Amino acid sequence: MTEFNLNPDYAIANEQTLRGLFDATHSLAILKCQSTIGEHAQEFIRRSPFVCIGTQGLEGKADVSPRGDPAGFVKVLDERTLAIPDRPGNNRLDTLTNIIANPNVRLLFVIPGFDDTLRVNGRAALTNDPHLLKSMSINNRVPKLAIVVTVSEVFMHCAKAFRRSRLWSPDHFQDRTEMPSLVNIILDETTGAPSDRDEMRRLDEELEEDYRRTLY
């Protein structure tokens, strides 16, 4: 693949040039921003089994992490505070170390079948308060810590992206077997995947067993 280089003649380098390309912001897009978690936002969060967390470290390195659990796993503690359990993962701790360095976070809540989403901005802190963690246990397994977010901005996001992508339409679901497995991809890009199909199958089965054993 040929390396792409951005043509500087067409670079958008300042806000004035950027805004000149678009119509003025609709008044509702400004008015919809709230500073607290209102009735409808609370209901949306209780229905959501999936949230993406955007964070950034002091050096500007950004990260977006998906988090999922049964619907309502993100707790609404009060109209300005949320708590997100941290479940077992790969222990890279990108989100958590970023929060320690820079507490500003962005959340995107998704509900299967809903085309609109809920966006929440705020500042996060980490806690291992046993009372809070116990309230988030699943299958008698208590998370090691929770991400507590003090909310500064809440607003609904329109359905255009989900409708353009037809994300929930079964007619547009893709066949996962058309790409290699997760383990195969990682090995291809690092140490090299085994050519023996039985060995590759064994590694895939080991990952599935790890999912079953360590999900919570």
TrEMBL record:
Pfam families named in the record: PNPOx_N (PF01243)
Q: Which residues form the Pyridoxamine 5'-phosphate oxidase N-terminal domain?
A: 39-158
Coiled-coil ranges (or none):
none
Gene3D superfamilies referenced in this protein's UniProt entry, alphabetically: Electron Transport, Fmn-binding Protein, Chain A
Signal peptide positions are: none
NCBIfam families annotated for this entry? PPOX_FMN_DR2398
Entries under PANTHER family matching the protein: FAD-BINDING, PUTATIVE (AFU_ORTHOLOGUE AFUA_6G07600)-RELATED (PTHR42815:SF2)
Q: What is this protein called?
A: Pyridoxamine 5'-phosphate oxidase family protein
Per the UniProt record, the source organism is: Roseibium salinum
